[in-house]
Amino acid sequence: MKAWFIGLFVGLSLLLPNSPAAQLTGRITYTPGPTPFISFARVKVSDISTLRYVQYEIAPKTGSATRPINVRYSRQYLQKRGYLRSNSTAITVPIFGLYAGRSNNVTVTLTFRDGSSQQSSIAIVTASYDGGTYSTPSVIQARLPGTTLSYDFILLESYADPTTPIIIDTDAEIRWIGTAGIGSQPSADFENAFYITAGNSLVREDFDGKYTTLADYSSIGVIGFHHNIDPGKTGVILDVDTSAWTECVNIEVDTAGNVLKTWNLADIISAAMIAGGDDPSQFVHPAPIDWFHNNATAYRASDNTLIVSSRENFVMGIDYDTSAIKWILGDPTKHWHDFASLRAYALTLGADTLPPIGQHAVSVPNDKLLLFDDGTGSSYQQPPGETRTYSAPRKYDINLTTFTATEIYHYLANPSIYSPYCSSVYEDAPDNYLIDYTLGGPYVFTGIVGLDATGAKAFDYRYSELDFCGTAWNASIIHWENLHLN
């Protein structure tokens, strides 16, 4: 049975000169949550009806360059989650993002409807946690005090450990782990919760550690999930397998898991090939053949385009509504280029532009196409195209007026990196990048690297590789330094 821990009620202070409509009463207490990274603070208020929102801040560890975790809960959110009841004088405040195995300095602020606020600090002592390689990475370059970076928190997509997802900060400190006991390849931060997959189902993990199965998709033919969960036009896009097709079907779902739209890339490409006078059976193949290997999607709002990454073939832009192919960007020495119907969609490469090969993690920061170019030729399609000796994040300008793709950015690690499969790159504020790579041949470690706006390396951590590239096959940026839960 969990014991209540009493926090020190330090320096109750009114932030406004006039007395608020309500007062904090008694001492703040807390109880440990389902993991060392979550605790539940109990705050008493003299008149709970006047409360507008509650905010907490976790101070970074001494010497850290990261910003504090800062979370604000609206009254409505706390009521919806059962943490605030109108007939009570106490509020439960979930405190997530704590450091494990130490005393955390947490400041809690209550704001009332008349605009007044009250603030108190509490020391929350957490249990230690052994996360294996996630707790003990090799530090090639620590993030130094004074480092300028637009982000501080990272979601590691790990399927080798049943704690999906794992959240670290840019000091390589673990700040959150999954509570559903699932090791899932797809996971994402969406609408203030984590979404992961299990079997044929989509699961929502809230930041307070509670989780819910939203939907089972077996009734529409889904037999499993793979790779990514990416933001779509209104929901998130899932990569699914069906009994008929392997790694070439995407579905977009809303926050409740309801299916909004489906794209079958086999049907889309087959229709284009037939219209262009080619036989799709020479390129498109039913399950279990992995002829396409869809591993990521991105939605570009400026021209209503769904961008799809096919590791076996190319990156493809299709109309979100009609599914008509708009353009193809890929290695012209691969099999797809043998077909005139597909060549007709090929973007011309700009000067000093290399095509992506075996790419992952497509995204569209500032309307540009960003991806991790693995540099590995096709596994199934023949001819397989070129295979390079290195991998590199690349960014392209896609110009549909001139029908060109021009490379406008790449990052070449020194020494060079070859990550034949998996891996990712994402951009936060302009030129602030997060790179995840898995050193291949054989798989040895996963590297997590941050680049700041000057192009300098902000940090570099390495984790022992678990299960092919399951330690962190993809890593994305999240923002917990100014999070509002409404």
Oligomer: single chain
* Highest-level CATH class of the largest domain: Mainly Beta
Shape call: globular
What is the count of distinct domains? 2
CATH architecture of the largest domain: 6 Propeller
Please state how the strands of the largest beta sheet are arranged side by side.
2-9-8-5-6-36
Main sheet specs: 6 strands, mixed
Binned strand content: 35-45%
Number of strands: 36
Structure in words:
The chain has 486 residues and is mainly β. It has three helices and 36 strands. The longest helix has 11 residues, at 265-275. It is globular and about 80 Å long. It starts with a strand and ends with a strand. Mean pLDDT is 93; it is low at 1-20.
Keywords:
4% helix; mainly beta; five-stranded antiparallel beta sheet
Secondary-structure topology with pairs:
Layout: E1 5-6, E2 10-14, E3 24-32, E4 38-45, E5 51-58, E6 69-74, H1 75-80, E7 90-96, E8 103-112, E9 117-125, E10 138-141, E11 153-157, E12 166-169, E13 174-177, E14 187-189, E15 194-198, E16 201-205, E17 211-216, E18 222-231, E19 236-242, E20 249-253, E21 259-264, H2 265-275, E22 294-300, E23 305-310, E24 314-319, E25 325-329, H3 340-343, E26 348-349, E27 360-363, E28 369-373, E29 392-399, E30 404-410, E31 424-427, E32 433-438, E33 445-451, E34 457-464, E35 474-478, E36 483-485
Parallel strand pairs: 6-36, 26-30
Antiparallel strand pairs: 1-3, 2-9, 3-4, 4-7, 5-6, 5-8, 8-9, 10-34, 11-12, 11-35, 12-13, 14-15, 15-16, 16-17, 18-19, 19-20, 20-21, 22-23, 23-24, 24-25, 27-28, 28-29, 29-30, 31-32, 32-33, 33-34
